[in-house]
Amino acid sequence: MNAVVVVFPGSNCDADCFHALSEVMGSRVKFVWHKERDLPKTDVVVLPGGFSYGDYLRTGAIARFSPIMSEVRRHAEKDRPVVGICNGFQILLEAGLLPGAMLRNRSLKFSCKFVHIQVANNQTMFTKAYRKHQILKMPIAHGEGNYFCDHDTLKELREKGRIAFRYVTENGEATDRANPNGSMDNIAGIFNERKNILGMMPHPERASEGVLSSTDGQGIWESLAECVGV
Amino acid sequence: MTQFKARVYVQLKPSVLDPQGKAIEHALSALGFSAAKNVRVGKYFDLEVNADSKEAAEKRLGEMAHTLLANPVIENFSVSLDMN
After folding, report:
1. Domain carrying residue A206
2. Which of A83, A135, A156, A188 gets the highest tally of CB atoms within 10 A of its CB?
């Protein structure tokens, strides 16, 4: 699998994504600076976590206008996969490639801890390696992960299988206590309509090796590798 | 061309919960200012714009707010203008 990790000024999970994809998964990975106007030939584009442009104005609000984003959009229009993790998710929301917006965590605190999430749809190019309703352990690290959208959008996300992951208890209950940030319907990740764009707040790249205490994030890379054919 | 001094106000829509406003409301109440209700936090941008007319300046500012300064999914904006 060929993958590109886009680097914005302030990205800080770019090297982790690169490592998980190249060293753990054996993919061919390239970094691409946000000012580039061309994407190298690639199967997958990853928008990594971090604090692009210092989170000034709103998270992801300035990065969405980076030159490379037109190419990311074009890549997605060809039904090729794009994954946005944490700040990458926020950028996809600001760019309008995914619906909704992020608000401050309801605790007003930056939250950095392991959480449990449940696979809400395992019939996609990002999640097919997971079992139905599989519960995953992954870390989150964000101050603005409180997912918000209007009621019509939420209805559509639910009915069209566009919710990728929900925050749950260890036993798989989507309770308010299991919700680390106040997200609507415990949403931890969503897909676009054609399900070739995934945005998620938890960090699969930080849960892709045993030494990191969870390998539950690997399923995303494995699903993609299977989908694009190695 | 006239130079206008503009202020663009951006605030969360009334339907969007404002956890920051809530926390400030609680703090005010704890300090004895229990008269304070429904605290909402917003922000404003001061900028200067050159335009042919007040209407043209307002139109341009609206575009700026819609494109970048505000996120229309969660925020409303308004614009006030003064001739420099």
Report:
1. 2-228
2. A188
